[in-house]
Amino acid sequence: MEDSYVIHSPSDTHNAQAGTSKNERTEEVQEAEKIRVGVAFTNLRCYGFASTANYLQTFLDHILALPIRLASLFRQDSSEEVLIIDDFEGLILPGEMLLVLGRPGSGCSTFLRALSGETRGFHVHDTASIKYNGIRYEQFHRLYRGERVYVAELDVHFPELTLGRTLHFAAATRRRTPDRNTASIVASLFRLDEAFNTQIGDAVLRGVSGGEKRRTSIAEAYIGGAQFQCWDNSTRGLDSSTALQFIALLCDLSKVRRSTVAMSVYQASENMYNKFDLVTVLYEGRQIYYGPASLAAEYFTNLGFIKPDRATTADFLTSMTNPEERIVRADHTDLVPQSSEEFARKWKQSQEATDLRAKIAAFNASYTVGMSGPATYPLPIYRQVSVCISRAISRMRKNVAVDASTLIANIILGLIIGSVFYNLDETTNSLQQRALLIFFSLMLNAFAPAFEVVVMWTQRPIVEKHHRYAFYHPFTERLASVICDLPIKVVLSLGIHLPVYFLSNLRRTAPAFFIYWVFMLANMITMSMLFRMVGSISKTRERSITPVTVTVLLCIIYTGFVVPPSYMVPWLGWFWRVNPLAYTYESLMINELRDRQFPCSTLAPAGGPYNDIPVDQKVCLVVGSNAGQQSVSGTEYLLLKYEFLPSHLWRNLGILLSMMIIFNVAHLVAAEFIPAPRSRGEVLLFKKGESRKRKTLSDEECGGITTIQPTKRQASNQTTSNSATRTALDNDDVVAMVSSTSAVFHWTNLDYEIKTHEGRRKILHDIHGWVKPGTLTALMGVTGAGKTSLLNVLADRVNVGAVSGQVFVDRHSRDAGFCRKVGYVQQDDIHLPTTTVREALQFSALLRQSQAKTKEEKLDYVEEILHLMDMERYAEAIVGVPGEGLNIEQRKRLTIAVEMVARPELLLFVDEPTSGLDSQTAWSICTLLRKLANNGQSILCTIHQPSFQLFCLFDYLFLLDRGGTTLYFGDVGPNASTVVDYFESNGAPKCPQGENPAEWMLAVTGNKSDTSSLSTTTASRDWNEIWNLSQQKRAVLQQINDLTSATNTSASGSPDASSPKLASSDNNEYAASRLNQLIIVSKRMFRDQWRDPAYLYSKIAVSICIALFNGISFYNGRLDIQGVTNLIFSVFLITQVFSAVNQLVITFFVKSRTLFETRERDSKSYSWTVFVAANIIPELFWQTVTAVPVFAAWYYPTGLYKNGDAAASTVERGALAFILVWLFNLWASTLAQAFAAAIAQAEVAIQLAILFYWLALTFGGIIMPPDGLGKFWIFMYRVSPLTYLLEGLSIASLAGSEVDCSPLEVQQIPVPTRGGSGNLTCGEYLAPFAAISGGQVLNPFALSECQYCPVWKVDTILASFGMGTRDMWHNAGLLASYVCFNMLATFAIYWAVRVSKRSKKSP
What is the distance of C-alpha 970 from the center of its chain? Predict the structure, then answer.
């Protein structure tokens, strides 16, 4: 029996030839021994848990999460088990293909996911029996992960890689020695040849089209070669020709490879249907048929149903799940099943089901041994790492902007820091400067990799997808990333530290520099591993920012410089022992200062009265000095001030390397075993308050409101609901409210070309046509024919490339108000994820409808559209993101409704409205478009895979070929007779009876990859040339000439009254006033942030955490010299808030900008100034709210509130400190937005903003006082906003306080003896010196050893940092001016970069 498990086909065994290498022979054996996977399942039941608490999480819910979670421990769980699919059974043998049919929400996705083992989000019931050639469910998915694959609808790829490189990588993971031609061969199979060298692209990076991206996802999974394949609506977005080709390819391969395929397909044509061996029909989570595809229609007709003429078998089967679609024979009205439960019961009692159960039993009985085959991962670990390294290098080459910006930014910082500390002297005066320089350089070095967390999260969905495909282990990709980043880190480390080290005159010996650089490089890698570990453990990108930022702060504080060990608080002092920076800093300081003598720059006492005092009776005012010594030992200085021991130099490197390994191992383990949270597509979320009215759980494709309750009442309710749907779509009164037009939209000689790497590429060529009022025009063509490009050109939405030709609305050129007077239903359903359906429609209506309409009328119209589109039952549901929230159908309806509520005055462009929808939903949407057209609306609609019934709804057809050339434009005709007659009269074979004219048309024009005689006899004909020479084109040109002539005549005279839409005075660019725009958009922005708790909570939490850990680390700071210095650095570290806020604000701004520029800008919903202002206002509000806890968490624990004097009370000082903290928060967010407005890529914007921050921090007066700056850099000190923040906070917090020196800081100065007369007291002896230097004699009446504190007032320490105690409030005024400047700069930069430079549009 085991011999039947393997394939013995010629195509699999022909490779055994002489000269074949051992590896190649091994791979051929593995290929030949691929297991055959037959699957048998009985009593398959899947369930989830519905809860009344399933509502959208807001910021407040996040705050209350902990107490609510604690309370839940003491109460009963309110969730209940809800069935998703119930009692499925079936058998798929090797080499067979199963078609899964059903409406969205019927359980198609859940069924496929259950079979493929992708069960996150729901559960398979324990009573279910699923066996793969006798192997149990859990065992199969553990041992043979690579032999099963589930391909979902979402397309995630590395945008910077080319399509060819993406496929080549997939091929490289499947064989030890991959064939380099595999990628190109597969690309040709899926018609991706032209895009082979094109980048995949994303919302920012221009790349392949949506259809090409979809086919790339399919090709990638196809290359995986899994023997058991589950394809979930994978033909979505493909034209009927390409979809059929893909299904035919799977059919052929399933026969050759003996692979097993299960696939859900919406709108399957008859040719597609005939490729499948088996079909199952699902109805509300129940199975109502499973068996041979050829017998399915007969089964239902035997029950008493009628199959309509011209209806495809797939449409007929799916119609069984819709009471309004199925047709019953007159003599069977009371005999046919009505509800899903009755259908399922009828099926269970049928002879076909009995025969199926017998086959399942026989199949399970024949497989008692199990399977044997190759390992899940074809490649060993080292080869997986190798191919991932190869891909990472390709990505680095294509995406150099981020790495280059990081490298350039850090080299610039290195040069600046080196020049600021230029040529330090080698006296005691430089000891503190050297310590500060090494500390600051270490900060810069250690936190350069912090940005890697963001990059890692962008890769995570792709890595986890490949893991599900068994391409490689996730940890191997992470390891490859670490390896590839090593050369960058080496260059980056050298770029930073070469200028810093040698410009600043650190210890200039080769061994010293080598030790310095090795420790810096080891520290950079260690910190990189730490950040990656935190990112891998975190569940979301936003949640990883807070722990990373707090870790950064603690690493800085507990390095040993900011807070020496003796000053560390006990509750956090332990962090010093686990801090990689602490060990690095100790070794760097040892390397710099050990075995060196630093001449004393200042001896005390000094000055006129003390010039005659012998040197042996003076002391150097530096820690570690002794009376009479003119130099200070670096080793002694390290021991006394920092407790650093020279013997720790190389010990610390070992500790550092150990930490590096531990962090890396933890990172790799987390990457392998802690996946990112998957979307909860089975849950439809409502606003809080609405969720308690609903308990929703359903199939992933549905997103809600489908549960199985075994009652007839539910079937009755469902029938009522479906009847309501039909009633809504038939509501002609509502349709009549939609605006109509009398203007003819026409264009002539349209050309459109773009610039590519290979040169200029023409997308559209010599296009002529029109859209008349009251007509529905279909725009068709294969994927890549330029359909969407034509819509963009006509809708005046092209921002790149060159457009030539003429476009007119009736007798006028397009005016400033054209874009808002048209509706554009985009192919991609782009919406704000946090808004509800009703809110999205209200937003569009309030902004885009004419000002002549009152607000009440606009909102009432929204309710009418909700009723018309049958969206009332989920009007309060949150839109969500693809895969979580509204399902495909609901999102498409929302996209259409958003344009309908705008009441487009001229025409409606619709791009792929039926893509991804089942046939019934596609029919309802096209019927709606037909009704709108009948009411006078002009509609131009692109469409894929139209059935005969759908195709006949259109009045005109515009057919494009590859290259953007016209194949036909004209009437469709009754039953598509005009189109068919045109092609038949020009040499095409006759359209067979019952053939879908839309598919036949694509076949005869050579756009269908089919080996039938139909295609081969006509594919060689140049149909574009036939069109150019045809009578039909001459008629089109003549009519356009008539319209153009009328236009030219009218252009020289007064406006024509026959075109009221264009002649009206309402030609404003926007419908709403700027003030109304600002109010409406700002309200939505506030709501968006409130409903995005990950963003808002992270932004506020990270600020508070930084302040809190800062405050408790300097708890009740002492006012000795070191303590005051510590507190000044506490002020310095409060600015670390910027690093975290910067990442969050920029990312949020870019996300909002993408929505605005992708949809709302081109529809003229609101202006760019409103967009910028509406982003700034909520940030100002939330930063103001955040400033209160930030101030309290930092100011009071440090004890700064206690300081006050006669010049300024503690209340005034506290008020000033709060205002400065508040202004700094505003400055941080507005600066981040200014950078986000300037730069397209969020990653680059973040890097440049951090560079600016480091520069401002460098010249803020703490790192280098203004007296130490050269003339060249003093300007930077004056323009740095942080100068005024740090000075203002330091003065407000510390000025006027007295210093109490610690024993270590007190200097012992001997009193010289006087012959004959008594000795002077210490007070008498040191009084002149103390008056000059600002010190204090602690024992003024002593006669021998004087205890001298070098500083008496904090003002002296502040003065050493260049901080004067002049009017305290002027710093607040200056910082406020910087905030205002940032806001103005955001507007100016956005205009300069993204408004003024937009390409000129066509006339």
Answer: 43
